[in-house]
Amino acid sequence: MNKIFWPILLALTLSACGTTTGTQATVEDRTGDQTGATAAKPAGADSTGVDGTGVAGSALPADQYAGDPRKDPASPLSKRSIFFDFDSYVVKPEYRPMLEAHAGYLQSKRDARLILQGNADERGSREYNLALGQKRAEAVRRALAVLGVSDAQMEAISFGEEKPRNEASTEEAYAENRRTDVVYADE
Amino acid sequence: MLNSSYNQAPLIEIPDPMLRAVLFFPLFCLALLSAPFSARAAMEIQVIGGAASKISVAMVPFQAAPGQPVPALTQIAGGDLERSGQFRLVDVGGMQQPVAPAQVNYGIWRGKGADAVVIGQVAALPGGRFEVRFHLLDAVKQTQLAAFSYTISATQWRPTAHQIADIVYEKLTGIPGAFSSRIAYVQKQGKRFELRVADADGQNPRTVMRSNEPVISPRFSPDGARLVYVSFEDKKPVVYMQSLRDGGRSKVAAFKGSNSAPAWAPDGRRLAVVLTRDEASQIYLINADGSGLTRLTRGGNLDTEPVFSPDGQTLYFTSDRGGSAQIYRVAASGGEPRRVTFSGGYNVSPAVSPDGRHLTYISREGGRFRVVLHELASGQTRVLTDTARDESPSFAPNGQAVLYATVQGGRGVLGTVSLDGKTRTRLSESGVDAREPAWGP
């Protein structure tokens, strides 16, 4: 029921925000911006993106995932995080049962697509950490490939240090953030 | 005439359905309305230390006709000069305000230690415009070093002041000034990320893109008209290009896997990017329109953070191919990379000076990440900072200072440091986190 109201909400929001954008342009005018040019463009970018997201979000029925083995806490498919030691990109043996379960699921559902999201702790360069997170994602991708998962079903990406699970600057937090998350594209 | 086109920095807003829903409530719209005002909050500037011998300049407040606004021209230009660490401002309190060189009593200014005197005046013109005239005078030789006149609008006081500072700097040091240049950086406030462009002194910040997902690695095109950056708005890193004139955006690299670390070739037509489409992070060259992809580095190692030399012939980059994070160089035409840094176990984020003679990068030593200056010919290095979590160094367009990010009191701040390490400034705004700075033209 709630979802039906989303498009209306969004439409109202859009019209409300037209005002906002206009005001921003006016403010920027004092800094020497050309007001006319700045006012129209962002509003256009807003409407396109919001409409698109609204449609995608309301298409799925609420009970889509009822009985989904990936959501069953008792299933190894519900386990989604692989943690790494400091400066290490080796998938530890303890994750084998979990990865085998995901490999089996992907082989049984050929249209399922998996995104492997690598992460790094906050120390050092953001771009270098992005590449380190990628190494952790690739390590899991290779492990799944060895278990027979098709490359076409997997994408290894990195969030680097940008999306920490634990934002503290402690060794415990760093360990939590040296991680690859296993996420299905339809989730 | 002043070029005012740089001020056109339209705002791009990355939509988020949740945020939009919240915005439905008028109260939140009001909150957003006030946001641009906070965006104008001035950054606070602190100068720490400075060169031993400085040029003394008297910046005499410019004279304006009665009833006209007296803009802070000499204050802004003086601040620019002072921040460079190469100038000392002579106290001008209670002094006469000459507007023409013939009215200047050089003896008085010499008595106050001035090596040079800047005088000027502002006159209102029809149509809300102004004429700014200024003279730079050598107090020792009692000669005029420079004189300029600008016709400007009421929104151009700051750029005019920066141009005056550039002229004074160049006439007195022999090196072009960089005060009219701009910086880009990412500001994080709560869960919101803003890509901002500001004057080189951190003032006049303008938000050019907003997102609920991280944004990193902004880089100005060589002509300053465009920014490339990495945005996570597509739930993965994708390289975007954005015009600073009209706000138009396009994806430069959105291949399977991660897309990051964009770097402009000096001709502004090509970029180096880091892709993972074939295997681990590798460096590729791509045209600015996203066509013509070619692979530059090979091997199962991690290669990232490419940057072109000013002649476009060489790229410097970070790699772990030797077992630790070090800086390498490779010909833009390909070939075998050569290692550049040898000391320490972590040297990352290289940037090349405009004359191609120096690198600056971040080096880890004893758990501290600090800005290093590296002379390429001799291999000699100098640590420029005494902070512990420095990131993202980049050279000023005139090569005289390095802009970098660091952490102070638990939050991200931007700073500059001169090449001798003696003059450091902080550009900071209270309550926000600033990171990922890049110095542009």
UniProtKB/TrEMBL annotation, chain A:
Compartment(s): Cell outer membrane
Region Disordered, residue ranges: 25-74, 162-187
Role summary: Part of the Tol-Pal system, which plays a role in outer membrane invagination during cell division and is important for maintaining outer membrane integrity.
PROSITE patterns: OMPA_1 (PS01068), OMPA_2 (PS51123), PROKAR_LIPOPROTEIN (PS51257)
Pfam families: OmpA
Membrane topology of the entry: Lipid-anchor
Cleaved signal peptide residues: 1-25
Subunit field text: The Tol-Pal system is composed of five core proteins: the inner membrane proteins TolA, TolQ and TolR, the periplasmic protein TolB and the outer membrane protein Pal. They form a network linking the inner and outer membranes and the peptidoglycan layer.
Protein name per its UniProtKB record: Peptidoglycan-associated lipoprotein
Coiled coil: none
Family: Belongs to the Pal lipoprotein family.
Matching CDD domains: OmpA_C-like
Residues annotated as domain OmpA-like: 71-187
UniProt keyword annotation of Lipoprotein present: yes
Gene Ontology biological process terms from the UniProt entry: cell division
